[in-house]
Design brief:
Blueprint lengths: L10 H13 L7 H11 L14 E5 L7 H4 L5 E6 L2 H10 L6 E5 L14 E5 L8 H11 L5 E5 L9 H17 L4 H28 L17 H13 L8 H10 L2 E6 L7 E6 L3
Parallel strand pairs: 1-2, 1-4, 2-3, 4-5
Antiparallel strand pairs: 5-7, 6-7
Helix pairs in contact: 1-4, 7-8
Length: 283
């Protein structure tokens, strides 16, 4: 492993995620559910644009390696990057059966790859947790070959939701600002309670409404209506325990892609929002 660098990284946020992935190593995530979530994130990824053998790509901010575990069998080589050594230890355990993976402990601002060396890259749920997401996209772009795709999942600013939904989020964000500054054991307790008291009931009500053909796109936490309590517990800690969080509109993400040198930017029209992919310009 390489040593971490303090470049475009928030140390407290990194430490928090290290503890999160140590607690939720994803060993309890059922294979079918993992594949379903993976399919949502990668729904618009242009697999057909990769070299015949899948090429060499990077998972930027790999966390526990839960998605890398599904990508690795499809490509020649996969480079897993995370600023947390704790997270990488979990990822190494989860990918112990794969021989085509390598691990790098570093920040997005100090990626240890040659420029224009990667056939693809993806960064899921990471860029909104670093100080400068746009600079992060630029840093990844430098490492991609011309024409190579970058897939990202960046928290949306509820730009496709009604005003009342955004007000509910503002209340939850006040809770995050408070909880994220508490000691770790208190974060965990509060997140577990939130998963049981808010996530699970609202998700199950959403599932019930869907079963009688009521539209639930704007129902709070409707995304989780078909997910397990384990996923809700993981995401509750992620949501409430993270100090640094930023949100972006679809237009802002498209602009960041464009200024970083990407073209043919596409967005997935289904949750989670926003998943976007772009191809590095060949000019």
């Amino acid at each position: 492993m390489m040593s971490p660098h303090s470049n475009n990284v928030d140390a407290e946020t990194v430490a928090g995620f290290g503890k999160e992935w140590s607690r939720f190593g994803q060993a309890s995530l059922k294979e079918k559910e993992a594949e379903e979530i993976f399919g949502q994130y990668f729904a618009i990824f242009p697999w057909e644009s990769l070299p015949e053998d899948g090429g060499c790509g990077a998972d930027i901010g790999c966390g526990s390696g839960r998605w890398a575990r599904l990508v690795a069998p499809l490509v020649r080589e996969l480079l897993l990057v995370d600023a947390s050594s704790e997270a990488l230890e979990v990822a190494q355990t989860n990918l112990s059966g794969h021989r085509n993976v390598r691990f790098h402990c570093c920040s997005i601002g100090k990626l240890p790859f040659d420029d224009e060396s990667l056939d693809f890259a993806y960064s899921l749920g990471v860029l909104h947790h670093i100080p400068d997401p746009e600079a992060g996209i630029h840093a990844i772009a430098k490492k991609l070959k011309p024409g190579a795709p970058l897939l990202v999942y960046i928290y949306y600013a509820f730009d496709n939701r009604p005003a009342w939904y955004r007000w509910i989020w503002r209340l939850s964000d006040i809770a995050r600002l408070i909880v994220s500054r508490l000691p770790q054991h208190l974060k965990v307790i509060i997140a577990e309670v939130a998963a049981l008291v808010f996530y699970w009931p609202l998700a199950r009500i959403g599932a019930l409404l869907s079963s009688v053909r009521v539209k639930t796109e704007s129902w709070p936490l409707s995304y989780y209506q078909h997910h397990s309590l384990y996923v809700m517990r993981t995401d509750a800690l992620d949501r409430l325990g993270t100090r640094l969080e930023q949100r972006f509109t679809r237009a802002q993400i498209a602009d960041m892609f464009s200024t970083a040198g990407f073209e043919n930017v596409q967005f997935c029209e289904a949750p989670p929002y926003w998943c976007a992919v772009g191809l590095k310009r060949t000019e």
